[in-house]
Design goal:
single chain; alpha/beta; Heat Shock Protein 90; Rossmann fold; 3 domains; 5-stranded mixed β-sheet; 5-stranded parallel β-sheet; kinase; Sig_transdc_resp-reg_receiver
Amino acid sequence: HDFNNLLTAISGHCDLLLLRHDQGDADYADLLQINQNANRAAALVGQLLAFSRKQTLSVEKLDLRDTLSDLTHLLNRLVGERVNLKLSHDPVLPPIRGDRRQLEQVMMNLVVNARDAMPDGGEIEIETSRCVVHEVLVRDRARVEPGLYASVKVIDRGSGIPQDKLQKVFEPFFTTKRTGEGTGLGLSTVYGIVKQTGGFIFVDSVVGEGSCFTLLFPAHEETSVAEPAAPEPARDSAPRQGSVVLLVEDEAPVRAFAARALRLRGFTVIEAETAEQALEVLQDPELKVDVFVTDVVMPGMDGPSWVRHALEMRPGTRVVFVSGYAEESLDKSRVAVPNSVFLPKPFSLTELTETVQQQLA
């Protein structure tokens, strides 16, 4: 959370500087480097959050066969010419619920790990299958309940993993590779994403023969047929004339960036450092506010709590929650907050302003 606040401030103020320079300026390339490395740092924080299962996921119904088929070209490029990639699918594989982008990351990390275990080349097999667990399966401190699962196996014929290291392979920064050849975050990221998706991961390995990573994801069973979504009306990219945003953020650098970004896009911004200050501002009956943009975790009253109080006075006001924590950690407290959306930190100038504009559309 603290890292994401710092990265929001760094990348956000860099966005503001880039707006004042064109590509011909001497400083432009340096600013771009700062921005790109801030994004790389954000990705690294995302990997750590993945292990702790606190990253933000965009969950949807997925057919793993389609996900893997779409990824095949990239996986073949990752393994190179000396390694053959073989895919085999179960024709009755059940669908699952997960984040497509994150599950693609899982497969890329596992395939790269398998490739690195075979420096002289070889074959990597990816197998999907329908799996029915008939009774409780307890393994590696995990408890798999009976039910229907989609299974994915990634099999290599590489060097294998010693038994005394098998239980450590999912720990952050643990690696069997030489110094400089890996961060030790690849498999810990895989573990975190799989667990946050509600799945399980197991590894079997024999030194000199290879390894098999098995993923189990609960099958998604639809309880009702969803109504087709109505087409969204066209959104106006510019804010309505005189739109007012109440910005509530306890981190001064983040608040400064967000306020400047919104003002640059034509919004009137009222700033508050705490929830209590925000509620005091709203006591003015003459003040018109269109959108609340608020951090979730703050000293004193948290974001969802003060917003619920505010909506009693001003029903219909739109809300944008921002946080460095995962959206899942907010879900329970956001249940009673209508017309609200979630924007994860770190966010860019464009992501912030477009989210607010969409709330007003």
